[in-house]
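User: Predict the complex.
Assistant: Input components as received:
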Amino acid sequence: MSDGKLAKDVMIGIFEYPHIPYWFSINQATRIVKVSFISTKKYPEPMAILVFDEKYNLMGTLTLKDILRGLEPRFMQTSEKMEGYKEQESELSLIWDSLFSKQSKELAEKAVSEIMSPAKYFVEPNDPITKAAYLMVHHDLVLLPVLENKKKFVGLVRMIEVFDQISDSLIKE
Amino acid sequence: MELIDREDHQKLYLQLYEILKKKIETNEWHVGSQIPTEDELCKMFSVSRATVRTAVLELVRQGYLKRQQGKGTFIHRNIISEGLNMQTSLKELLLEEGIEVMPKVLARTVMMPVDDLEQQLDITPDKHIIYIKRLWSVQDEPVLLQENYIPYHICPLLLEDDIEHNSLFELLEKKYRIKITRVKNLIDITRLTADDERVLKLPEGSMALLMTQKFYSGDTLIMYAREVKKPNRFQFLVELERKVV
């Protein structure tokens, strides 16, 4: 399907994305998003920050969605949407006004480790792209780390390259 | 004009040295101008050629004068800056001899600059930094918390070095041949953060010595360090060494 391509053939360098340690606050991460992406108008796909532990092991990724979710007041957080819950209804307009203003400053002091998407899945450089595609689709991942010997973080596989490789072989056939 | 005092017990060349130095420092003789010849100086001060030569040689050695082959002797500079030579090695300052201190590495990772790090390291906000945090203890008593920030592009391999047994200073100088030519130290007294108090095992509201250091190689800032030192465990030895720049 993907011409036998491997993760190492499509992975990108780890310094394509900003690095931060897990103890940084949401506030600090937000400033980094501004400086790295928004003010420079560099919009990588996906837009994310890599979160590391104190020994420089990858712990997780932080997307813009993760940050906004972290700033939502607790009463708005639901793990599953209720049946018949209508987000468009007008009586909720008061809630919309205060959604990201009242508690968000306090919430922004939380550590990013509380809101990141943990890095649980990875591929080895010599794993086939199809394995990367499987993991990304089934676990809803935007980025997939490539670890050498299950330890050394050497690159990242993105959906766009995975899609490109697999779609190429589909179109050819 | 100030003349040599033959009643004075001080050697003649030293008297002449002081007189000429004063002329330079007070700008009576301007930087860049040529001083009188040996013969002229002999006549001016009624001293021997040997006395003039020795006094002039001393002024050349100190950096006030510069000799130019075939042209003469010129005023090079009228002020000699003071070099501050500061001994700041932990082992030299802190401890009774023979006690081994070993750091425990609390963190070694990579981060983007936040807070004032961008200014402290003089880097653009898109540059990564290597962050190293180490705790130094003496017989299980934590005495120093040290945080180092090094722009990633200066020395990426530092992430793989043994930093428990080697000083960063030595690694940079000996292994990576990055010569540290200047260190700026700022010493202050600070109230500890709750985190620092916990790590240093100090009660709430404790004060400590804070030393921030900037390490330069030429004009390039290569490392910024922040050290929180437990009170009563440190002495600072400041050695002022006058030198010709």
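Residues 83-242 of chain B form a domain with the Chorismate lyase fold (CATH 3.40.1410.10).
Let me know if you want any component modeled separately.
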